[in-house]
């Protein structure tokens, strides 16, 4: 009887819907291979095309093939280091200002085995001011992925991951402007990753939530990045399952079963 009642209850219990991802801006770098990145204006949500971020360094080129990890669909090309110019490459792109709620910044990347000289770094700018980012600049005691502050350093131990910069990884930054906190996951796979209820982060920086309206990439050789995306995640309202045919009768049977079970328990105590 109890099993029957449980089945009846489960048949009418609302199911939790999948997370809803709202894209703010994204780019899969579906551009002409082996050509300079600046001037390209693909993707969605951006305020303008890719441009050089500095007069001192060479801009990236476009690579022919995508980076891939399990759990993420890749397309187009990627950005790659352009040899024959300066020791560093840089390129940047603007988007609407992000400074409220919870915002995710996600990308695929693989960098040099070294860090320092401001690289490798994915820099988040508010206007012309660096607000934070990800990568490394000689922090952490070893070249690993880290959360960077406005000085491009990871000054606290929790901001350092244990994943080498040379690892091909999916990097997920979660910036919480309400809690003033940034968390980062550096993963070999995004299969099963739950953005609403994620596992323990690879790194965390309490007290840092960089507002930004521009993303700039700086690396030395080698350095590559792909599938750049800025987005928000919300939980859609739970949708109840359709009431089965004879649903009212099912509820009546469940009530009767529970009443009979209660009567038997009362009788057994006498």
Automatic annotation (TrEMBL):
Keywords of this entry: Membrane, Signal, Transmembrane, Transmembrane helix
Highest taxon of the lineage: Bacteria
Signal peptide, first to last residue: 1-17
Transmembrane regions: 243-263
Entry protein name: IPTL-CTERM sorting domain-containing protein
Organism annotation: Acidovorax lacteus
């Amino acid at each position: 009887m109890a099993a029957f009642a449980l089945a009846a209850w489960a048949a009418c219990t609302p199911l939790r819907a999948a997370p809803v991802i709202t894209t703010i801006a994204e780019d899969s770098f579906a551009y002409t291979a082996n050509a300079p990145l600046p001037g390209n204006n693909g993707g969605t949500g951006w305020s303008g095309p890719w441009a050089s971020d500095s007069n001192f360094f060479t801009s990236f080129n476009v690579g022919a093939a995508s980076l891939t990890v399990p759990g993420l669909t890749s397309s187009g090309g990627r950005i790659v280091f352009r040899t024959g110019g300066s020791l560093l490459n840089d390129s940047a792109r603007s988007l609407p200002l992000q400074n409220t709620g919870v915002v995710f910044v996600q990308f695929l990347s693989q960098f040099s085995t070294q860090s320092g000289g401001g690289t490798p770094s994915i820099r988040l700018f508010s206007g012309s001011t660096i607000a934070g980012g990800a990568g490394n600049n000689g922090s952490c005691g070893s070249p690993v992925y880290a959360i960077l502050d406005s000085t491009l350093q990871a000054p606290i131990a929790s901001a350092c991951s244990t994943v080498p910069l040379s690892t091909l990884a999916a990097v997920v930054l979660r910036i919480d402007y309400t809690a003033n906190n940034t968390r980062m996951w550096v993963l070999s796979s995004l299969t099963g990753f739950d953005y609403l209820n994620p596992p323990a982060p690879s790194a965390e920086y309490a007290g840092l939530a960089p507002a930004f309206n521009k993303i700039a990439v700086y690396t030395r050789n080698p350095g590559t990045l792909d599938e750049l995306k800025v987005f928000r995640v919300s939980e859609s309202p739970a949708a109840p399952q359709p009431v089965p045919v004879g649903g009212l009768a099912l509820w009546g049977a469940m009530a009767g079963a529970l009443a009979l079970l209660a009567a038997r328990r009362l009788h057994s105590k006498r």
